[in-house]
Automatic annotation (TrEMBL):
Domain of life assignment: Bacteria
Major site of localization recorded for this protein: membrane
TM annotation in the entry: 6-26, 46-66, 78-99, 111-133, 139-159, 190-211, 223-241, 253-274, 294-312, 324-343
Source organism: Qipengyuania benthica
Protein name: Sodium:calcium antiporter
The keyword Transmembrane is annotated on this UniProt entry: yes
InterPro entries, A to Z: K/Na/Ca-exchanger, NaCa_Exmemb, NCX_ion-bd_dom_sf
Length: 344
């Protein structure tokens, strides 16, 4: 185990910066491989973005949440998950800025992404209900924990079924990006591409964990509170792969992959609470978190609802060439972060 705490502050900063650079470089490659896999299989960009790109870039976050829960830091563990989801949803607004042709949510119309956004709202709302209910555990695990896993799996199955046999299709416009029109340019074996993606996933997972550990140590040395560390510290640094891969996917024109990677990754991130409850040995983690963490849960629900509305309305233009939902997402996240910082 790397003893980051024994290093000087300068060394920890260099570790943080170096790992962030590795994530930026390898994250771009990961987006390219995921796009190729989507083009050469029958699963589509939205579903591949959810399963491969979403879960693959979330490994570092689940390690951080589970390990901190095992050490008894319930607030830090759940705030890391919720703060990560909020930050990654905000990343779509940043990606919208990079896609200058038209509003990103208009161009990337996909019923699969709508399906997954609705599932995400359900996954985050259920823990709020558990927090408000009386504490109850079976063998130290809250009954909601296996339910969350079941909802996630049912949501993935529903998204696959929606992709295979959609009951409705978005209206095509001149600016709609049709993933079926994309052709794979990487002619290497699909098994080789899949293997390379798996290697990058492992490296980014470890590097992201290292970034998180360095961020935690720097936050401790600078005296930042646990709530801010979870929602704005570890959440941001462990979400760097999502930021890089989302912007890389948008620049490649894989718009449904970009949105599917964020929404699907957020669905996977919601399972951090389930793994954290299993690792937390002092009772139900749902009843051990503070109102500040529940605030982030509510903020995630609101931000996802705004994103879902944007995907449904498919506005062509907004202020500065981006959609109104992107402006709202930036404002909501910035307001939530400012409130956390003011509360200390």
């Amino acid at each position: 185990m790397l003893a980051i705490a024994s290093y000087s502050t300068l060394t920890v900063c260099l570790i943080f910066a170096g790992c962030a650079l590795i994530i930026a470089l390898l994250g771009t490659k990961m987006a390219g491989y995921a796009d190729t896999i989507a083009d050469r299989t029958r699963f589509g960009e939205a579903l591949i973005g959810s399963v491969l790109l979403g879960a693959g870039t979330s490994i570092s976050g689940i390690v951080t949440s589970t390990s901190t829960a095992a050490s008894g830091a319930a607030d830090l563990s759940v705030a890391n998950a919720m703060g990560g989801i909020a930050a990654q949803t905000m990343f779509l607004a940043l990606a919208d800025i990079f896609y200058r042709r038209i509003n990103l949510e208009h161009a990337a119309a996909s019923p699969v992404n709508l399906d997954q956004a609705a599932t995400l709202i359900l996954l985050v709302s259920l823990p709020i209900m558990a927090w408000a209910a009386p504490p109850y555990t079976i063998l130290g695990i809250h009954p909601l924990t296996p339910v969350l896993v079941g909802v996630y799996l049912v949501g993935l199955h529903g998204a696959h079924r929606t992709h295979q046999r959609p009951m409705w299709l978005p209206r095509l416009t001149a600016d709609t990006r049709d993933e079926e029109a994309d052709e794979a340019t990487d002619l290497r074996s699909l098994w080789l591409i899949g293997g390379l993606f798996a290697v990058l996933m492992v490296v980014i997972g470890f590097t992201g964990w290292l970034v998180g550990e360095a961020g935690i140590e720097l936050s401790r040395r600078f005296g930042i509170s646990q709530g801010v560390v979870g929602a704005l510290g570890t959440a941001i640094v462990t979400s760097l792969p999502e930021l890089v891969t989302t912007i890389a996917a948008v620049r490649r024109g894989a718009l449904q992959l970009a949105i599917g990677g964020i929404i699907g990754g957020n669905m996977f991130d919601a399972l951090f609470i389930a793994s954290s409850d299993i690792a937390y040995r002092d009772g139900s983690i749902y009843n051990a978190i503070s109102e500040r963490t529940v605030f982030w849960m509510a903020l995630v629900v609101v931000m996802t609802a705004v994103l879902l509305t944007g995907l449904l309305q498919r506005e062509r233009r907004g202020p500065g060439g981006i959609g109104w939902e992107s402006v709202l997402l930036l404002g909501l996240w910035t307001g939530g972060a400012a409130l956390q910082i003011m509360l200390g």
